[in-house]
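Example 9 (inverse folding). The structure is encoded as follows.
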């Protein structure tokens, strides 16, 4: 494959062109990448004396370009029981042979040959030595204070990454605070919007969003997470599944119209971001 045929471009397109109104631009650019890849594969096969049909070349290019994008690190457990879960969200069966899971604190885990993941299925990699798929690591592997995990394909390209606690503090910002709600008396539709400014999945488990003046604290539930370059909102007393479904569930207004400060901390108390107005 030449340098222009790279699965990381799919992630870049998703990040930079995310609205439905831009779908034609996305499709046009993806088609260009697939066509370039198909031409490369077709040419390489002819040189090796194993010519491929145009359809085979095109399908193989689609798979190589997009297969990495359909798998994600979907869960990381770093408490009493340590493990990582990968989920195949796409339409193709994935061959994970020789893919690697990388932690900052241990040698990589390499998936053995003939490791396949069906569409819609998940696979779990444990830390303990007794598991079928395991890092075979003695003692703790995933630090409770923070770590970064990467899933890399057999070409070494990072297809998914996950950060938590201290490793995530530079990646979440308070993007906007709507302190003057429209709902009379309760202002239940006030909200704080958080944004993930990184290409990593960010684990928000146990993180705390607080109002300094209003003295209210919202704690993110276990396994709360924010996708790469995504946003979520924490409402005063309103539920919106499209923005994460988070709410203080406060019967009264939280954010004072004359000024306040919103603070975001990790579960261990590290300051992530503060927003004063």
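The amino acid assigned to each position is listed next.
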């Amino acid at each position: 494959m030449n340098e222009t045929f790279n699965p990381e471009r799919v992630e870049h397109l998703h990040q930079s062109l995310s609205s439905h109104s831009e779908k034609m631009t996305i499709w046009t650019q993806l088609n260009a990448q697939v066509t370039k890849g198909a031409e490369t594969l077709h040419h390489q096969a002819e040189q090796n004396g194993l010519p491929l049909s145009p359809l085979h070349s095109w399908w193989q290019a689609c798979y190589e370009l997009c297969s990495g994008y359909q798998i994600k690190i979907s869960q990381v457990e770093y408490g009493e029981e340590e493990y990582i879960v990968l989920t195949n969200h796409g339409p193709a069966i994935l061959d994970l042979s020789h893919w690697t899971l990388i932690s900052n604190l241990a040698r990589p885990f390499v998936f053995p040959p003939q490791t396949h993941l069906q569409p819609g299925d998940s696979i779990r990699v444990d830390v303990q030595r007794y598991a079928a798929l395991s890092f075979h690591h003695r003692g703790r592997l995933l630090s409770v204070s923070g770590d970064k995990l990467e899933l890399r394909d057999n070409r070494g390209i990072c297809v998914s990454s996950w950060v938590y606690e201290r490793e995530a503090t530079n990646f979440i910002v308070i993007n906007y605070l709507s302190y003057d709600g429209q709902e009379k008396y309760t202002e239940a539709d006030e909200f704080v919007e958080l944004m993930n400014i990184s290409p990593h999945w960010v684990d928000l488990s146990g993180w705390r969003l607080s109002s300094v003046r209003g003295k209210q604290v919202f704690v993110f539930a276990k396994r709360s997470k924010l996708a790469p370059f995504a946003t979520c909102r924490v409402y005063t007393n309103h539920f919106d599944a499209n923005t994460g479904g988070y709410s203080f569930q406060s019967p009264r207004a939280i954010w004072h119209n004359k000024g306040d400060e919103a603070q975001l901390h990790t579960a261990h108390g590290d300051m992530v971001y503060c927003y004063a107005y």
